[in-house]
Design brief:
- The complex is a heterodimer.
- Chain A is an alpha/beta fold.
- Chain A has helices spanning about 10-15, 20-30, 60-70, 90-100, 120-130, 150-160, 175-185, 200-210, 225-230, 245-260, 265-275, and strands at about 5, 10, 45-50, 50, 55-60, 75-80, 105-110, 110, 135, 165, 190-195, 215, 235.
- Chain A is globular and about 55 Å long.
- Chain A starts with a strand and ends in a 6-residue tail after the last helix.
- Chain B has helices at about 5-20, 25-35, 45-55, 60-80.
- The relative contact order of chain B is 0.21.
- By secondary structure, chain B is mainly α.
- Helices cover about 75% and strands about 0% of the residues of chain B.
- The chains are: A alpha/beta, B mainly alpha.
- The interface of A and B includes residues 17, 55, 222 and 257 of A.
Chain lengths: ~280, ~90
């Protein structure tokens, strides 16, 4: 058995004793949960390319194979927690840019920085090499979204015309007041809160009500959180390699059923809302 | 399936999800319990397969990640049912 299955090498699962035929059927069922009108596009807003220091890894060729298997047109990609010896993510960002060059039209490169370590220079370098957005992780890089250093980075990203994707999942700090303070200082920022903002969803949703360019991605989000949001504030994401495309699509399909999204709403969630944030046309 | 039955599956599957994320050995028993609680519902197929995989090769990283995917889909099915939107 060759190929990819649930984001893994199918032969590895088979060698471990898994019932690959049954898994393949479940994967098909999950992917089929999302019903889209003809001519749709699907763009994943949240993928990590590289090797995280916790061991999770994803190579560009495997990502593209996964996209093909799941019927996904393209993915926004940025480094995992791989800051490198200088701590500025420069080499990891370069590798994402190279992957985007090799897979033009399939990989949309974002860069990742640590606001405390040469962020302005790293962003300028990434911009010159085609980056179209920024990823920030306040828990991994240990900073507060409302801190001066982060505000400066978000302001710079906004000047470059970039959306900023923030980790907003696992973590102890309340996030609502933090992002309210950040947006008070950079009100034109375009923010994508990852994981449906599950780290503090109700407070973040209340903040988003006052900022039309603040949206939530679906990667490893909680279904009740997604179902409670207006669909125009949601962008599809998988969090590969921490999540996989089958369950990411299944989650959106189930949220659509619970919330009663129509075709127009689905087209927005699956690509249109993200493309607008990126400065392109709708899905 | 009643809302209470669906919430039982949600609880067990959510506990199993975190156990899988944390590489905790309690994931296996929790998945087995969740799959029994989901028997006869759309969540069952996902949870039964996740439980079977973890039983066979709990130490393999690819198995853990695939089981995590299946567990999450079982959880999503049960959540949808609890919220009145499941199949």
């Amino acid at each position: 058995m060759s190929g990819r299955l649930l984001g893994q090498d199918a032969s590895v699962l088979e060698a471990a004793g898994a019932d690959v035929k049954a898994l393949r059927a479940l994967e098909r069922q999950a992917v089929g949960t999302v019903a889209l009108p003809a001519g749709h596009r699907v763009v994943d807003a949240h993928v990590h390319l590289g090797v995280d220091r916790d061991g999770h890894a994803l190579a560009a060729d495997d990502l593209v194979a996964d996209l093909d298997a799941a019927g996904i047109d393209a993915a926004v990609a940025f480094p995992p927690d791989e800051p490198g010896p200088g701590g500025d993510f420069r080499h990891a960002n370069d590798r994402v840019a190279e992957a985007a060059d090799r897979h033009a039209g399939r990989i949309i490169p974002f860069c990742r920085v640590d606001p405390a370590v040469g962020a302005e220079r790293a962003m300028q370098h990434a911009h010159e090499f085609g980056a179209r957005g920024l990823k920030l992780h306040p828990v991994a890089q240990r900073f507060a979204p409302e801190s001066d250093a982060c505000v400066q980075v978000v302001r710079h990203a906004t000047e470059l015309g970039w959306p900023v994707l923030f980790h907003a999942g696992f973590g102890a700090r309340p996030l609502g007041p933090a992002f309210a303070a950040l947006l008070e200082r950079v009100p034109t920022a375009r923010l994508i809160l990852a994981h449906g903002g599950r780290g503090d969803h109700r407070a973040l949703a209340a903040v988003a009500a006052g900022y039309p360019d603040m949206v939530f991605d679906t990667s490893i989000a909680a279904l009740p959180d997604l179902a409670a949001l207006p669909p125009e504030r949601i962008v599809f994401g998988s969090d590969r390699p921490y999540g996989d495309h089958a369950q990411a699509l299944h989650l959106v399909g189930m949220a659509a059923r619970v919330a009663g999204w129509d075709d127009r709403a689905m087209l927005g969630v699956m690509s249109g809302n993200l493309m607008r944030l990126l400065g392109g046309e709708g899905g | 399936m009643s809302t209470g039955d669906a919430l039982r599956v949600v609880t067990l599957a959510a506990q199993a999800e975190m156990a899988l994320v944390r590489r905790d050995q309690v994931a296996g028993p929790l998945l087995a319990q969740a799959s029994r609680a989901a028997a006869g519902t759309p969540a069952a197929g996902f949870l039964e397969e996740a439980a079977a995989m973890v039983r066979v090769a709990p130490e393999r990283e690819a198995v853990r990640q695939a089981a995590l995917s299946l567990c999450r889909m079982g959880l999503q099915q049960a959540q949808a049912r609890a919220m009145g939107g499941g199949p």
